[in-house]
Amino acid sequence: MTAAAIQFSPLVPMPFLAVVALLGLALLAVGVSRRAKGSLFRFLFLCVLLLALADPRIVNEQREPQPDEALIVIDRTSSQKTGERLKQISDAEEKLMAAIDDQKDLEVRVVEVTDSAADDRPGTRLMDALTTASAEISPHRFAGAVVITDGQVHDLPKELRGEATEGAADEPATTTRNAGLRGPLHVLLTGKRDETDRRLVVKNAPGYGIVGKEVTITYRIEDKHARKDGTTGRATAKVEFKIDGIETETALVPVGEDQTHTIKLDHAGPTLAEMSVAPAEGELSTVNNRALVSVNGVRDRLRVLLISGQPHAAERTWRNLLKSDPSVDLVHFTILRPPDKDDFTPLNELALIAFPTHELFVERLDEFDLIVFDRYLKRGVLQTQHLANIAERVRQGGALLMAVGPEFAGRASLYHSPLRDILPAEPTGEIVEAGYRPRISDIGLRHPVTAALMRPGFDPKADPIWGRWFRQIAGEKTGGNTLMTGIQEQPILLLDRIGKGRVAQMMSDHIWLWARGFDGGGPQGELLRRLAHWLMREPDLEEESLHARVRAGKLTVERRTLKDSVGHVQVTAPSGASQEMELKSAAPGLWRGEVAATEIGLYRLAEGSLSALVASGELNPLELSDLRATEDILKPVTERTGGSVRWLADGIPDLRRVDPGRDQAGRGWVGLVAHKAYVVTGLKDVPLLSGLLLAVLALGTLMAAWWREGR
Question: How far apart are CA 384 and CA 295, in angstroms?
Answer without folding.
Answer: 41
